[in-house]
Amino acid sequence: MKLNKTVSIGNKGKGVRSDCFVSLEITEDGGIQIELVSKVKALYGKSILLLIEEVLNFFGIKHAKVAFEDSGALPFLIAARMEAAIKLLVETDKNFLLPMLPQNNYQTTKEQNRYSRLYLPGNSSSLMINAGIHTPDGIILDLEDAVAPDKKYEASFVVRNALRNLDFYGCERMVRINQVPRGLDDLEFIVPHNVNLILIPKCEKAAQIHLVNKKIEEINARYTLYNSIWLMPIIESALGVMNAMEIASAAENVVAMAIGLEDYTADIGIKRTAEATESFFARSTIVNACRAAGIQAIDSVFSDVADMEGLKQNVLKSKALGFDGMGCIHPRQIRVVHDNFAPDASEIEKAKKIVKAFIEAKEKGLGVVSLGTKMIDAPVVKRAEKTIEVAVSLGKISKNWREEDNEKI
Amino acid sequence: MKKYDKLVKNVLGRIVPTEINGKEAVEYLGVGKYKPTGRKYAPPIVSCADYPADGNKTLPTLKEALIRAGLKDGMTISTHHHFRNGDLIAEQIFDIANELGVKDLMWFPSASFECHSPLVKYLEDGTIHHIEGSMNGSLGRFTSEGKMTGLGVLRSHGGRYQAVQDGDVHIDIAVIAAPTADAFGNATGDRGPAACGLLGFALADSQYADTVVVVTDNIVPFPCIPWQIHGNYVDYVVVMDKIGIPEKIVSGTTEITKSPDRLLLAEMSAQFCDEAGILHDGFSFQAGAGGTALSIGVYFADILRERGMKARFARGGSNKYLVNMLEEGLTEYILDGQTFDLEGVRSMRENPHHINTSPFTSYNYHGKGNFSSMVDVAILGATEVDVNFNANVVTHSDGTLLHGIGGWQNCLFSKCTILPIPLFRDRIPVVIDEVTTICGPGELIDVIVTERGIAINPLRTDLIEKMKNSTLPIKTIQELKAEAEAICGVPEKIAFEDEIVAVIKWVDGTVIDSVRKIKK
Hints:
The complex is a heterodimer.
Chain A: E1 6-10, E2 20-26, E3 32-38, H1 41-58, E4 64-70, H2 75-89, E5 116-121, E6 138-142, H3 152-165, E7 172-176, H4 182-190, E8 197-200, H5 206-223, E9 230-235, H6 238-242, H7 244-248, E10 256-259, H8 261-268, H9 280-293, E11 296-299, H10 308-321, E12 325-328, H11 332-341, H12 345-363, E13 369-371, E14 374-376, H13 378-393, H14 401-408
Helix pairs in contact in A: 1-2, 2-3, 4-5, 10-11, 12-13
Chain B: E1 4-9, E2 15-20, E3 23-24, E4 58-59, H1 62-68, E5 76-79, H2 89-99, E6 105-109, H3 120-124, E7 128-133, H4 137-144, E8 152-154, H5 157-166, E9 173-178, E10 180-181, E11 187-188, H6 203-208, E12 211-216, E13 236-239, H7 246-249, H8 260-275, E14 284-287, H9 291-307, E15 311-318, H10 320-328, E16 331-339, H11 342-350, E17 354-356, H12 359-362, E18 377-379, E19 384-386, E20 391-392, H13 408-411, E21 417-420, E22 424-425, E23 428-429, E24 431-432, E25 447-450, E26 453-456, H14 461-466, E27 474-475, H15 477-488, E28 496-505, E29 511-518
Parallel strand pairs in B: 4-13, 5-6, 5-9, 6-7, 7-8, 8-28, 9-12, 12-13, 14-15, 14-18, 15-16, 16-17, 18-21, 19-24, 21-25, 26-27
Antiparallel strand pairs in B: 1-2, 2-3, 10-11, 19-20, 22-23, 25-26, 28-29
Helix pairs in contact in B: 8-9
């Protein structure tokens, strides 16, 4: 325990909302002294003080000076900030965990849609709180590039507590860890807290995936956990592109592979353009590797958040290249990404015909499905069923589309 | 004179005084329950023989005009708020009063802004006894701390017209800042360096005050056309160098919100209106000036355009988005109460379908009807809503008086009132057990749209029925409250002193609630 040393954690200042900033000094005597400045003092002053005391008490701190500046932080964030500050001064294996929200215990599947995933900076809660409301397929709590180097330590506590105590309303709960090997340390903060999918940035070889999986297994064994954790490596370099196949097929739990074009274009020493011809090879290679490995191919983010038409064109191109989804850096991008990755009217019509033919063949007890004079293979049927499922989930067709189509006839 | 006396409990269970600044008042009885009697207030009869035959009513200074108007202790001075945060006149009036040693004035603005903070010193030294209108920002804080000599009275725009018309408030001197005027006193707000669009909030003042002073920095030869304010009501005209700060009067452009959370609220509200059948050819709407409300107008426009429909009229607060709708033929009229940007001012000046309205035509509850109940949907804001759908727009989460009522109470009479509000703001829950201050009774508030769910007032069985199969997240108000508490925690009850520092008037002049002194 380091005495008489002041440490600070968190965010404050103009424009900072739903956050807090704590300065902590552990003292030899004098008890716990808390100086609280909060814009919600009239409503939550008592509960903030209680929580601060509870965390200090949990770590056995009897004497401390705490200066706490609060701009409306939720309890999970207050606890994260306090714990991060304390652990700069106290060596401990203990973790202060608020109860896991029961609704956060869901699992995701290998095949589920990953059209959109919304990036959320890991060291700020203001964008996290309502992220799920905007219904992306997944949210990414980012520990990597969206967090300043000197804030990475405290961000891991925020991300851990968010996984436990923030409701993302059914979105796939993803975390982007730091580049391996540093990212391996991040796993301790997320694996025991039902993360659904881990993004591995700047991935260049299968060995990195194996390292991550080894660490996950170790943590799972320690906590006796059985949840599946999916991996999505991000390819961001020339070497990564050349090793795409090796990475895509590195492990059973790799469900998707993404490309990060900012770093990729920097790595090969060219400028990123809107037409993106410079990355055509890389993107095609990724798509090809993903298809060969039977996983989803995910495109880079579109960075102009004001240009919705540009985003739409980008999505259409991306889809035409064979990608299954893309990252979003603003909630308003989600709708555009969904609408344009989703099957269009002609794709839906074709899928309907195939599914109908399949059902009819089954009803007649035929072993072979055919549409007109064409035979239809099982994977084609499976894909058509998937298209229908997606169209229904996006409200493009009704759940009872077969009955409704029959009525029309 | 006591600030207030005779406390009673009104039908909403709120303790309110029925004697306010020495005058009798009636407690709130319910919507439409209070029946006024008697005749309207009338200003003194005058003769044109006592006014210059050549129509020249100009005086060299505001001070001279105030002296000629007989400025003395205890008088009521009114101003309008069309200049919003760019008003340069109100402060000058009280500078002069202070210089003349006049005390105990009542300031009766149609609204106050942060630019009026310097008046705190006149509240402190007794030049101003109290304010009836709105107490925003520093004035609100001053009031909440119990420092004002008299009791603050908050009224809606319509309530202000009603109070003047009924004689609840007698205006001794009305000072009407006018962007353009002639020497006879005809005045307009649609042009001039301080153009603000219109002057509707000053209509009652011109009609009922004992003395009316028009102040302008843009004098034109008779006739000043259009004459939004009639010179026949006006006693004196004062010409000054500058009456307002243009960029603080109207913004150059109004922009819709970029906040994804607010856009989501706007989208959900527009979808609600669509699914509930509120959007139809020839419908009408009122959307406030806030970012969310503004965006809803844009979504309405998209839907109308797509379906080849148009609105019959839109109520303003006008801005460039409403003007675009008008010019694109998506609404046939804008009935405008105040203008928020330069595009609104231009349209008001140039387009005969952009109509200048006043609290008399739009909102006055003691009239032979008003426009607000004819509007199909009104989109409004609130600082708090409770499980009985009562809403608060004047006090902050810590109990401090911070905002005026504006036209908010009046708009509640629309056929469907929707409040799109976040479920919580930086941990401050917005949907709660009981609002701090009731500004509008729940029976008039139909729908609460939050990002986590939409609650329909149980009284609106028709809307509930229509939205039965909606894909929107329809929940009960109790469910919303529980959700807010699950995320933010259960808030502590704010402690107040017993002392009442202001009252909230309902549209009919009755007292709907009291604001209490905050505990330090």
